[in-house]
Amino acid sequence: MISINLNVRVYTDKGFYQMRKYIDDLLILHSIEKEGGVEKYIQLLDDLFSTINIPGLQLHGNTKNRTKNLLGYEKRNDFRWNPSEDLLEKNVKILQANQKKKVTCPLCEKPLDVEYANKEYIFQHKNSRVVFNCNHEKSKHISKKKVTIPIKKADLPDGVDAIDFVLYNWKYFSKQWSEDNINEEK
Description:
5 strands; two-stranded antiparallel sheet; alpha+beta; 186 residues; 12% strand
């Protein structure tokens, strides 16, 4: 148990009431966590936070979930992949357990969230190729072939799996696949 002392000066205005309500709700958040309602409650607190001004408190302008950020619930996803469509990067970072990345199918443009737990389902390594597992559902390409990316063993850096290599260089490989298949159809 930790004792918290708050010195509050009472004013009869709307701003003070909103700030007091925010702090009170923030302090009882631990009891709600046991009931499973944290996500909904944090959204309510974020809505309330946008209406008040706490002097001296500044957050980055792009902070989406301010309350999660203040409480330390939300950690930054630091998985940065190769942003280039033209250069293949050999210095590969591997997707970790708490990270995720959104990839887009180069054929139907369906976005999929790739996490550590599902990366081997979305990307499958067979023989000397990596297959992007997209069913092209709800698109005109539903009967088209799978997105298959050939990988040469010589291209892979030492100690890096083919799936991690393709995921890290996804923009490059999806552009190459699109160009090859557009040329095949013509």
